[in-house]
Amino acid sequence: MSKLLNNRFIAFLKLVRIENLIMIVLTQFLLRYFVLQKILNSNNLKLELNTVLFNLVVLSTILIAAAGYIINDYFDIKTDLINHPKTVVVGKIIKRRWAIILHVTFTLLGITIGIFAALKTGYLRLSLFQILAAILLWFYSTHLKKQLLVGNIVVSLLTAAVAFLPFVFEMAIFQKNYPGFSVMHSNVLLSCLKITFIFSLFAFMTSLAREIIKDMEDYEGDRATGGKTMPIVWGITASKLNVFFLIMITIILLLFVIYNTFKFYRIIINVNNIYILFALIAPLFVLSILNLKANSAVQFKNASLLLKLIMLFGLAYSILFYYN
């Protein structure tokens, strides 16, 4: 990996966390075209938000996210040189000056596109997500990242908000095109809200667990640079227990989804429940064990990667939702 980073283009992709940006795109596309569209179609409705506008919403989201990753690496050079010396990009492959230029450019583009999309829907206040996200990501990198829990919660809330954007913009355009939509089709609104909330809650819980695991992975560098993350303030053991409880709560919530499916269809064994059981709950149990047994940065990194895969499986459930 360190040799590949000598290529500026590869280094840039690493800087903006291309794999995370792809996850953001997948999240918003899958929730729009597989979750919202399924609910709307089943109620004899169709997606109202213009495809170009939706693509602009996605573009603004990934631009602001990319800007956040860049500024995070900019302010985290000392810590990264301790934790991940072979994969540091800023200051080695990409100059610090260019990192700031890229951050500012992506942020301004993201906010501008977000404001344009919000104006086109008729609700300028929808652009608050892009504006607040950009502000929070700046303060996360400069002040919040190494603080106890605050930074973890901010990132997790932003992750959950990404999943909510397609719902918010879609319902806004419905309300604009059909005044009184929220009253006349309250059942549709509530169904879309409920399913979107489930995906967002899963994203929040898993993201929060992953952020704490990453803090344990980066323990040495954070401690050396004055960090006050959970592993430093409360200790590694307490942090492991917090991750364990977050995983258990997530499993309980998933079991509740299985119960609701059974309550509605009166069938316990179906494709949806089997998927949740084996693609989500079983890996989460494995993760809980790996987390408790982990004692090195490499082991915590492996646990973090597994959780990232589980998050992808959770997102993929939207496809199953559409076809069942």
In a nutshell, what does this entry contain?
The protein has one domain (4-323). It is 81% helix and 0% strand. The protein is built from 14 helices and no strands.
The number of helical segments is 14
Summarize the biggest pleated sheet.
none
Structural class by sheet pairing and helices: mainly alpha
The portion of residues forming beta strands comes to: under 5%
Number of strands: 0
How much is the average pLDDT? Answer: 93
H and E order: HHHHHHHHHHHHHH
Categorize the overall geometry. globular
Instruction: Report the oligomer.
Output: single chain
Overall helicity: over 70%
Instruction: Return Rg in Å.
Output: 21 Å
Q: Show unreliable segments.
A: none
Count of individual domains: 1
Distance between the termini: 41 Å
Please write out the topology.
Layout: H1 8-15, H2 18-42, H3 51-75, H4 77-83, H5 96-121, H6 128-144, H7 150-177, H8 181-184, H9 186-217, H10 219-224, H11 230-233, H12 236-265, H13 271-293, H14 297-323
Helix pairs in contact: 2-3, 2-7, 2-9, 2-14, 3-5, 3-6, 5-6, 6-7, 7-9, 9-12, 9-14, 12-13, 13-14
Overview of the molecule:
It is a single chain. The protein has 324 residues and is mostly helical. The chain has one domain (4-323). 81% of the residues lie in helices and 0% in strands. It has helices at residues 8-15, 18-42, 51-75, 77-83, 96-121, 128-144, 150-177, 181-184, 186-217, 219-224, 230-233, 236-265, 271-293, 297-323. α2 runs antiparallel to α3 (51-75) and α3 runs parallel beside α6 (128-144). The radius of gyration is 21 Å and the shape is globular.
